[in-house]
Write a structure and sequence with these properties.
heterodimer; A: mainly beta; seven-stranded mixed β-sheet; 11 strands; globular; B: mainly beta; four-stranded antiparallel β-sheet
Chain lengths: 117, 113
Amino acid sequence: QVQLVQSGAEVKKPGASVKVSCKTSGYSFTGYFIHWLRQAPGQGLEWMGWINPNSGGAHLAQKFQGRVTMTIATTISTAYMELRSLTSDDTAVYYCARDWDVDGSFWGQGTLVTVSS
Amino acid sequence: DIVMTQSPDSLAVSLGERATINCKSSQSVLYSGNNENYLGWLQQKPGQPPKVVIYRASTRESGVPDRFTGSGSGTDFTLTISSLQAEDVAVYYCLQHFTTPWTFGQGTKVEIK
């Protein structure tokens, strides 16, 4: 069955970087874009961008351009999202999600990133 | 960006009664190439990740009870829970994936009356 398993919770200081991983299984990794989203405490969902595992090309929401890098490791069917220059506003649960198809979409369990001095 | 507007913001329904949530998009999310609406509904229980319950506006995700029904096309959509159960208490979000950025409704909190 399709699964997306994310790395564990992180605590970072302001100004630091964080890299979240999303290991996929149960489907053709290169066949579907991976999207990254986040949800700040008590807030709604915010789309950050996608990466195409077939090409490595990525497209980011404007507010994250210059601060987010999305990468892939095809041999281990894993996607990564790195966020730099963290501030307290980046405290959130970060999700990866497989793109939609005739069988719907599949989401990771989420990774809590806490930014605190 | 496509703006998604949900109503109501919260809803209290008696067990066994119907719950109805509406979602309106600022532009059509109907893809003419396959006549599919790129509209999904997510259920999020406290402390849990979102779970897809409906996709393509009306297709129930595998394992989702048939009391959940999605309907609508173009810009107006509805999620109906025909007979509310205790385990359905959650926040429900509509989202469009017709174009990026994916955008979400503000969420509807469903509670037991």
